[in-house]
Amino acid sequence: NAGVTQTPKFQVLKTGQSMTLQCAQDMNHEYMSWYRQDPGMGLRLIHYSVGAGITDQGEVPNGYNVSRSTTEDFPLRLLSAAPSQTSVYFCASGRPHRDRARNTEAFFGQGTRLTVV
Amino acid sequence: DQQVKQNSPSLSVQEGRISILNCDYTNSMFDYFLWYKKYPAEGPTFLISISSIKDKNEDGRFTVFLNKSAKHLSLHIVPSQPGDSAVYFCAATRNTDKLIFGTGTRLQVFP
User: Which of A46, A49, A111, A113 could bridge across to A68 with cysteines, CB 3.0–4.6 Å?
Assistant: First the structure.
């Protein structure tokens, strides 16, 4: 059971370059999300999706685009990278539910460490 | 505006003693709270949760307490073990919508 898979694990970009961070899950979760982790800032929500074809903005969406064409995949796109986007990015699948039998606490990928120079 | 706050960036505890990690929130509409644990170079993993209709939830060595009037929750780890050394994030949600995380507390358990 792979869970949530993020690629790449590390990436260095030059300012202005574009790239896509990949995220795939095999748990058939409808809900997926992207977070960035910065020192002293915790995990901040970038974008999320409640199902294929549906996306919405989180706390810090500027500079990022997402799409959700399938249940399994939720890529995060940086159209023109900036040094302020240097961070560790986490993709998560599932969302918390009071009925734990539904097992929808968020499961996180291993993260992508992105440096923009 | 930080809706979920962890005011202690770090905590150091001796093995076998109790670790208490604290979390405050500002949004009274939050109705479900969670704690996640994160090791270096790994994604966060779910630890324990509590609904706003309860004031305590226990799972083995981990207990979460919720004080709604103070908008405060805490995670107690008893006894603390070296393997508990990690960064702990509290998170809150409303109607099981998106998770809002705190800034994290780094726990170090020393022998």
Answer: A49
